[in-house]
């Protein structure tokens, strides 16, 4: 295991922010810490980096107990949401910083920094200052800077959070490819489930300071441990007292076995997908179907249909209030 | 119309308060040409006063720079009991009259006071000597560096310092390589202000120095003493020199300010 966090508790004042958090991060993996904002993701990441001290619990990095180790001795790379670029240093000197601290020979530093700048496609920008870069370029520089010291683990706190949607998508794909090239154990924080599912091999869902579930993207999406995780990872709707993914519901115009009667209230065409809004037992629900299927049934508002979860689809029975 | 009225009042106000007095001093100083000015400033007493002023100011600026940066870091980056109190105390020298400061220092460090007596027995004379004058100057110029640095340090945030730590930098390395360059313009601004204040200090130094001519006489004390002794050319020459230094530091702060 590259990182083992055991029973970590952390409070700010009287507010508990992490509660008995234990996670394992496998060597070479790309793990997402996913959860709503304020759930303690950054705090957990900072505890791993040593930027925050846990009240109780331990953190082991590469088998070594690092709980009381200062951040500069943990050999972790940390990338901050707002880049934390060294404003008074050029891109080259930013990336060289960790190596200069380690007093590596000049030509070795030069070689390594240029390699890294090539890796993050900033070789043309070596002599610029951070203020002369775009947000995406700054974040790539921060990544190169963190990688320069060959960290045991790379920690990224909402690395693309401050970027616009387009750049964000590009960098996501790029991060995945970079990880496949460099193989450094990576943990990144995000509150965007799509980002976590697309990029990570393992997702840790963290909410209210507690780990809700750990698993591969497919596992947490298809087999959510509880309604919270199910809601957080993708769209859900409620039918017959169960929480179901809207694409896991069958509609038929004839009554079917195990089906529930529903009235179509609206049919919304969103390109390829069609969103059928329904009234089921006096509650709102919706079903996602393909355009072809919707056309075939010729659904319109006011129709009475029968709906049931697709056999084999995962649904969660909600406790009745 | 009101606009012109206000302008006229502002200009007249500044004229009678600032332009006329300073202008007259310069007029008197150079009324008989450059010769008397140079002569007055190169007299043994004047040169000595210059030296004393410079010595006291440099020590005071050095002390306030180290203390100022340290206190600013403490106030912005750390949490500790008594922080608000410290924050309030920093501004005390702004509120207390320099004369009171001088008297207070004599009460503590005077020859017949406990601390002063002890130091005296070790051969260190504080009052009526350079250390006392440095202390007095340090005190009156205390808030200047702190107050210049604090807002910039706050705005800088600690992200960069934390990034430096994760890259292997110790506290000292992060401070020298990251924090100090981040606050350099603000620090320079604070230091220049502190220097100006130290060079011009009169009240507190007057009390603790004992005004010993050719021993503990600073430039400001020299001006006053020459004036009392009807040596107006020397008084005006030294006053002009002080004013020139002030103008130069003012220009320096203007240069440093926008980069804050
Ligand atoms: N330094 C701090 N002092 C006080 N409260 C903090 C501090 N850092 C975080 N918190 C609080 O801890 C909670 C979790 O914060 P954080 O770990 O940043 O969550 P996330 O990254 O999941 O959004 C929030 O309620 C936040 O206000
Ligand atoms: Mg966060």
UniProtKB/TrEMBL annotation, chain A:
Keywords: ATP-binding, Nucleotide-binding, Sulfate transport, Translocase, Transport
CDD domains recorded: ABC_CysA_sulfate_importer
InterPro entries assigned: AAA+_ATPase (IPR003593), ABC_SmlMolc_Importer (IPR050093), ABC_transporter-like_ATP-bd (IPR003439), ABC_transporter-like_CS (IPR017871), Mo/tungstate-bd_C_term_dom (IPR008995), NA-bd_OB-fold (IPR012340), P-loop_NTPase (IPR027417), Sulph_transpt1 (IPR005666)
EC numbers: 7.6.2.9
A single GO molecular function term of this UniProt record: ATP hydrolysis activity
Sequence ranges assigned to domain ABC transporter in this UniProt record: 3-233
Annotated GO CC locations: ATP-binding cassette (ABC) transporter complex
Pfam families: ABC_tran (PF00005), TOBE_2 (PF08402)
Name listed for the protein in its UniProt record: ABC-type quaternary amine transporter
Organism from which the protein derives: Planotetraspora mira
TrEMBL record, chain B:
InterPro entries given in the database record: MetI-like (IPR000515), MetI-like_sf (IPR035906), Sulph_transpt2 (IPR005667)
Keywords linked to the UniProt accession: Membrane, Sulfate transport, Transmembrane, Transmembrane helix, Transport
Residues annotated as domain ABC transmembrane type-1: 50-257
Transmembrane segments: 12-30, 50-76, 88-110, 122-146, 187-213, 233-252
Primary localisation category: membrane
Subcellular location as annotated: Membrane
Gene Ontology cellular component list: plasma membrane
GO molecular function: ABC-type sulfate transporter activity
Membrane topology recorded in Swiss-Prot or TrEMBL: Multi-pass membrane protein
PANTHER family named in the record: SULFATE TRANSPORT SYSTEM PERMEASE PROTEIN (PTHR30406), SULFATE TRANSPORT SYSTEM PERMEASE PROTEIN CYSW (PTHR30406:SF1)
Subunit structure: The complex is composed of two ATP-binding proteins (CysA), two transmembrane proteins (CysT and CysW) and a solute-binding protein (CysP).
Task performed by this protein: Part of the ABC transporter complex CysAWTP (TC 3.A.1.6.1) involved in sulfate/thiosulfate import. Probably responsible for the translocation of the substrate across the membrane.
Protein name per the record: Putative sulfate ABC transporter, permease protein CysW
Lineage of origin: Bacteria, Bacillati, Actinomycetota, Actinomycetes, Streptosporangiales
């Amino acid at each position: 295991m590259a990182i083992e966090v055991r029973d970590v508790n952390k409070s700010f004042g009287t507010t508990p922010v992490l509660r008995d958090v234990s996670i394992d991060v496998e060597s070479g993996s790309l793990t997402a810490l996913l959860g709503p904002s304020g759930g303690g993701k950054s705090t957990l990441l900072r505890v791993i980096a040593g930027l925050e001290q846990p009240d109780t619990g331990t953190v082991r990095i590469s088998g070594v107990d690092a709980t009381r180790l200062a951040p500069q001795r943990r050999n972790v790379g940390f990338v901050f949401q707002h880049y934390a670029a060294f404003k008074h240093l050029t891109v080259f000197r930013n990336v060289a910083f960790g190596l200069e601290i380690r007093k590596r020979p000049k030509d070795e530093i030069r070689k390594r920094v240029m390699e890294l700048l090539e890796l993050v496609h900033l070789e043309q920008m070596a002599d610029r200052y951070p203020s002369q870069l775009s947000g995406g370029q700054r974040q790539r520089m921060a990544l190169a800077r963190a990688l320069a010291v060959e960290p045991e683990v790379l920690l990224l706190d909402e690395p693309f959070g401050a970027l616009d949607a387009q750049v964000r998508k590009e960098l996501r794909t790029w991060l995945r490819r970079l990880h496949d090239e460099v193989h450094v154990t990576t943990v990144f924080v995000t509150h965007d489930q799509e980002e976590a599912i697309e990029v990570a091999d393992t997702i840790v869902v963290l909410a209210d300071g507690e780990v809700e579930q750990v698993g591969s993207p497919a596992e947490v999406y298809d087999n959510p441990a509880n309604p919270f995780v199910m809601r957080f990872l993708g769209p859900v709707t409620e039918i017959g007292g169960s929480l179901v993914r809207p694409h896991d519901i069958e509609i038929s115009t004839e009554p079917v076995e195990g089906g529930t009667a529903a009235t179509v209230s609206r049919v919304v065409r969103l390109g390829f997908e069609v969103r059928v809004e329904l009234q089921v037992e006096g509650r709102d629900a919706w079903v996602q179907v393909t355009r072809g299927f919707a056309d075939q049934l010729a659904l319109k508002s006011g129709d009475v249909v029968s709906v049931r979860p697709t056999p084999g689809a995962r649904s969660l029975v909600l406790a009745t209030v | 119309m009101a606009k012109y009225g206000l302008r006229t009042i502002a200009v007249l106000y500044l004229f009678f308060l600032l332009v006329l007095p300073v202008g007259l001093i310069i007029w008197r100083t150079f009324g008989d040409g450059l010769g008397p000015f140079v002569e007055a400033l190169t007299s043994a007493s004047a040169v000595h006063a210059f030296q004393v002023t410079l010595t006291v100011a440099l020590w005071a600026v050095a002390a306030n720079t180290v203390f100022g940066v340290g206190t600013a870091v403490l106030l912005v980056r750390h949490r500790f009991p008594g922080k608000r109190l410290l924050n309030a105390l920093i501004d005390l020298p702004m509120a207390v009259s320099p004369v009171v400061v001088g008297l207070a220092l004599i009460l503590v460090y005077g020859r017949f006071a406990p601390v002063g007596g002890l130091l005296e027995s070790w051969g260190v004379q504080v009052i009526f000597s350079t250390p006392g004058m440095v202390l007095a100057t340090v005190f009156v110029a205390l808030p200047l560096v702190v107050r210049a640095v604090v807002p910039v340090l706050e705005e800088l945030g600690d992200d960069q310092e934390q990034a430096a730590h994760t890259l292997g930098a110790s506290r000292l390395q992060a401070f020298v390589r990251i924090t100090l360059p981040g606050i350099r313009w603000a620090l320079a601004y604070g230091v220049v202000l502190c220097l100006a204040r130290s060079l011009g200090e009169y009240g507190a130094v007057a009390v603790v120095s004992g005004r010993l001519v050719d021993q503990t006489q600073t430039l400001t004390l020299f001006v006053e003493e020459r004036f009392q002794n009807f040596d107006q050319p020397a008084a005006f020459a030294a006053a002009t020199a002080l004013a020139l230094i002030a103008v130069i530091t003012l220009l320096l702060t203007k240069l440093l300010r926008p980069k804050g």
